[in-house]
Amino acid sequence: MTELAAERRRAIIDRRALADALAALPRGGDLTPSATSILRGALAAGRTEIASRIVAEPNRGRSHAAAYAFLADQVVRLAFDFVTHRLFPNPNPTLAERVALVGLGGTGRGEMAPFSDLDLMMLVPPGGAPWCEQVVEGLLYLLWDLKLKVGQSVRTPTEAIALAKSDMTIRTSLLEARYLWGDEALSDETALRFRRDVVAGTNREFVAAKLAERDERHRRMGDSRYVVEPNVKDGKGGLRDLHTLYWIGKYVHGVRQPTELVGAGLLTAEEYRRFERAERFFWSVRCHLHLAAGRAEERLGFDRQREIAAAMRYSDRPGKSAVERFMQFYFLNAKTVGDLTGLFLAQLDEQLARSGRRFGLPSLRRRPARLDGFVLDRGRLSIPSDDFFAQDPVRLLHLFAFAASNRLEIHPAAMRAAARDARLADTVRDDPRANASFLEVLTDRNAPDLVLRWMNEAGVLGRFVPDFGRVVAQMQFDMYHHYTVDEHSIRAIGLLAAIERGELAKDHPLSTALFKQISSRRTLYVAVLLHDIAKGRGGDHSELGAEIALQLGPRFGLDPGETETVAWLVRHHLLMSNTAFRRDLADPQTVEDFVRVVQSPERLRLLLILTVVDIRAVGPGTWNDWKRSLLRTIFEAAEERLRLGHKEHGRSEQVIYRQAELAAKLGWEPTRAEKHASRLHDSYWVAEPPAWQFANALQIEAAGKGEPSVVAEDDTESGATRVSVFAPDSPGLFYRISAGLAAAGASIVDARIHTTRDGMALDNLLVHDRQGRGYAEKRLRARLVTSVIDAIKGDAPALPQGGRDSRGNVFNVAPRVLIAEQASSRTTVIEVNAPDRPALLARLARSIYRAGHQLHSAHIATYGERAVDVFYVTTAGGRKLDAGEVQALREALLGTLAETQPACAT
Questions:
Q1: Helical spans, DSSP H, in 667-744
Q2: pTM
Q3: Each residue's pLDDT tens digit, 205-233
């Protein structure tokens, strides 16, 4: 596809000199080893030369891709000449003794990365002449001896045409076929027949197939151009999307170079310049990625991003690291490709359109009664004149509001004009009409995320809300966030609308029900849009975001009460998740502290829904049943407290109620039930859910005297596996349990530790497998039980070494040990932040045990490469730790973390 010719060609490879060297090889004997040595040396020298150019000129990716293709061309030509002149000379070939070498794929386009495959088609006449077979075999063996990875096919012109008719992949390969060497007439004949017999009259079929193929490829790659470990070649917004545009233009209009897309009316000159800049950038990244990996690697993983950012000479800036700046530019280019794809396909749709046969978005649902100055062009919203937005810049916002309210697709001409005139949005930021139109888009019930993306792609959103413009294409360099900040926020808006429409009632029944109770839906939509708007500014993004919300609320048309609520939600948008996932919800102090901040039922409802969509929009796999269970628990406890002004039942009343409820469910006689109840402290009856108390009672009843009893069962409410241990209490018991689970490959997500009045330990833990799911198979649960029993009875097993994910070593997570003095009235709450590692909890529990302290509960959360483990601890005598004991334990835990800390990435 590249139009660039390789520069300083002889510095890469001197074909004439090498041809002379091959010709000078003495006659007789096996010439292949000597020829291989000559060509291998030339190939290595050429690669070294191009690699040095990449270092010296890191941003000229298209030039480097052309250079690699030129090197491959010359080596193939030299190899072919050697085979046909020295190994199998044929001075007077017949018409049946001809071979044409044709490049396909990147070889055909004349653009190759350092470790790209060499994609060759060898055309031969029909009849299968022995000389042709010798040449093909000799050439392939020579190329293989050079350690080239060759994708090859041998076909007659008729076979190639027949396959192209039936196989769209082969058809695409032939579309970009390029004659390399050999019999040129054979190559020309095939190209002519391809255009005449395959391409003619099949434009629609090809376009439809390529778009379907693109959609499937996007689905495999995550279906977003904003995934934080993107695939440079096949990901959404990457090189393959640019190739697809070129293929379609070449197929439909016969363009020979990408610049001809302008003449074909598919791109404007300015759009083509954006096309070329994006292509150059992605080729630069791809070449650096191949060289860094030492192989054909297309996924720009965390472990390569920092290295390539340095190679491409990005540097740190205040509030943003070099790697974040590099990745932001990556996503801006991916966004450009998305913008160009939409414009290109819509323009193509115009060219190919006929009734009922279009390739754009769904057409007009119904004709609006009023068009407000806009026009409809074949069912799509457009503008009547080129200066329509300049006449009244408010129309820039109204275009999207009108499209949203009437569920219309925007015509490519109008999108082009909006992108061109996006700067006019600067002039109407304070115009009430413009802000009303923006709020109409944001709070649309049908597809606000779709229209917001259109605004974002046109550049209007970032211009109208400059604070949002600062987070466009901004990534966070960690393993937790899957998308850029702007994409995450827009996805959250889409999820919010889906909840309001009732489409996610099965996944989120509580949020769906609560949505109907909130007093101001626009407050919630604005809060979701702004919750991460201050990321990347170097401070607390929640606090900074709240300040931005106070400024934007009145501008958007919110009243003072709504604005204050939005600011509160932005400031505290992490409060509910941090409380639910990092605190003991059975501790009354937890609920008291949470309610003290929330203060009203309306805030509580809004905060729950915001928390749900925020977590869901982080990416696949971040939402699970365990998080749903914890959020519901804190919501219900806080709602009761806020509604009644006090807990409906005091602690003692709650304990009596739970004991009576369990006795009735068990059907035990009163004395038997009272004996069981008297063994357990009040904290047990408050902390554990009734279903667990029932299961624990049966387990205790069945346990042998003095022997540990371990049960592992599915817990459908949490989506995890409950492991319950009933055993004689002893120092370090929880450490042994956690070590046994770690040895079996389980990850503990929550743990509550109880001691009976007669010296037995009753511990309830929730665990996940390595995929973050419960253990569905009975066989695997039995393995957990065996591992825990072995750890309790014998020596604690050796703790697993190494990291959960090698990519995690790329990130610098500074270990921290924090003491939350006021988080509990009865225990000392210790929060540990550290790089996530196998058996981290077991190691920390061992340190607490060796310090001589008692562990009452543990709560575990992971955020990509970062783990947050929270422990509720007392001394062996049952009191809170004093200052000296806190300091000693902090130092012990930091020492444990230092032992497991990997070498920091540089």
A1: 670-679, 682-687, 690-702, 733-743
A2: 0.77
A3: 898 888 888 888 877 766 666 677 889 99
